[in-house]
Amino acid sequence: MQQTNRSRHRHITSFQVISLGFLSVILLGSLLLMLPIATKSGQYTSFLDALFTATSAVCVTGLVIKDTATYWSLFGQGVILLLIQIGGMGIITIAIAIAVVSGRKIGLMQRSTMQEAISAPTVGGIVRRTQFIIRTTIFIEIIGAVLLAPVFCRDFGFWKGIWYSLFHSISAFCNAGFDLIGIRTPFSSLTSYSVQPIVNLVIMMLIVAGGIGFLTWEDIKNHKWHLKKYRMQSKVIFMVTGILIFLPALYFFYFEFSNVPLTERVWVSLFQSVTPRTAGFNTADLTLFSEVGQMLIIMLMLIGGSPGSTAGGMKTTTLAVLVSSALSVFRKKEHTHFFGRQIPDGTIRNAATIFLMYIVLFLVGGMVISSTEDIPLMTALFETASAIGTVGLSLGITPDLGLVSHIILICLMFFGRVGGLTLIFATISEKKPNGSKYPQEKITVG
């Protein structure tokens, strides 16, 4: 009984630590972005604008009120990039890395919190995993910057090209979606590189690399091409990620970009299928998409990346568990299985709860914004899906929204980054016993 109580308190305390960590970094980032040195014009930035930008950066979303390239100075862009890096790797990961470097002992509480933060299966080896996350992140981001450098150095000069390469590599791997291409056209993202093969390939690879999760990268490191030795979770992530890239790309290719030249058609179709989960870059004008195309992007944004990754959203594993559970019902099977492994009932309940939480917040937020701003519901839902999925794609309305709408988006971005399961553990202060004082009675569903 004592162990059970400790486990409950651990979950609650872990949430508090993670939430306070994120909130502290967001507040500090907001204060730094309010300084005159953070803007190119040398003017102060309002607290709400700074808070929105800092939240979007720490929650690796990419929704912006001010264009990153034209409004923020080099100092401001540096603050944003640092917030993105901290948010991408995770507050607790950074804290434990600093503790290890300083020689401090990592206690059980810190290890438990780290386990929650990266969705690790056990507490054991958590410090080693933290070191692996740091090394993997730095290595991949440097490789991405090196690959992008020839293009950006050619277009913007050597030193600015190096800065642009590093900024976009970190932003892409952390699935943040912040860009500096607004110096050509504000809020244009990567539309000017829609047919540039290096930029397209590197950015897409970085997005996927950051979105599959660090535990999956650990499987790749340990087992290489021996897929049978991978965790079931890694196999599910690979399968779902592949499907969610391939099928939307086919739709975009045949229906959204049918009038585009073939080469560009291939690139923009692939890029727009990768970026909604949950990067926020775009190489096509999303306002020109049909409502079906925009709805497909909304669905992809809500799904998001994978557990223990730099991405947000409900997660690919949540979708996989729900679909597999539904198939089990259709086939009249008692249990849900993946790759010869049974899924616990508790996992299915958690997945259903997370799905419901995301859908309710997404819909309610969209309806309130639509009513408050007097804009089409689809447009408002696109923004709320982007916020709660920590994506950053927009139909161009974010800078013009009012105070209430911006606060709603800030809250949704924070929820999307902290994670649904963490909030579930936080709100359940005491696990109810299996028994019930109420008699059982069947209810028909469906």
TrEMBL record:
<keyword id="KW-0406">Ion transport</keyword>
<keyword id="KW-0813">Transport</keyword>
<protein>
    <submittedName>
        <fullName>Potassium transporter TrkH</fullName>
    </submittedName>
</protein>
<feature type="transmembrane region" description="Helical">
    <location>
        <begin position="12"/>
        <end position="35"/>
    </location>
</feature>
<dbReference type="GO" id="GO:0030001">
    <property type="term" value="P:metal ion transport"/>
</dbReference>
<keyword id="KW-1003">Cell membrane</keyword>
<dbReference type="InterPro" id="IPR003445">
    <property type="entry name" value="Cat_transpt"/>
</dbReference>
<feature type="transmembrane region" description="Helical">
    <location>
        <begin position="350"/>
        <end position="370"/>
    </location>
</feature>
<feature type="transmembrane region" description="Helical">
    <location>
        <begin position="403"/>
        <end position="428"/>
    </location>
</feature>
<dbReference type="GO" id="GO:0005886">
    <property type="term" value="C:plasma membrane"/>
</dbReference>
<feature type="transmembrane region" description="Helical">
    <location>
        <begin position="47"/>
        <end position="65"/>
    </location>
</feature>
<keyword id="KW-0812">Transmembrane</keyword>
<feature type="transmembrane region" description="Helical">
    <location>
        <begin position="236"/>
        <end position="255"/>
    </location>
</feature>
<keyword id="KW-0472">Membrane</keyword>
<dbReference type="GO" id="GO:0008324">
    <property type="term" value="F:monoatomic cation transmembrane transporter activity"/>
</dbReference>
<dbReference type="Pfam" id="PF02386">
    <property type="entry name" value="TrkH"/>
</dbReference>
<feature type="transmembrane region" description="Helical">
    <location>
        <begin position="312"/>
        <end position="330"/>
    </location>
</feature>
<keyword id="KW-1133">Transmembrane helix</keyword>
<feature type="transmembrane region" description="Helical">
    <location>
        <begin position="198"/>
        <end position="215"/>
    </location>
</feature>
<feature type="transmembrane region" description="Helical">
    <location>
        <begin position="71"/>
        <end position="101"/>
    </location>
</feature>
<feature type="transmembrane region" description="Helical">
    <location>
        <begin position="377"/>
        <end position="397"/>
    </location>
</feature>
<feature type="transmembrane region" description="Helical">
    <location>
        <begin position="132"/>
        <end position="152"/>
    </location>
</feature>
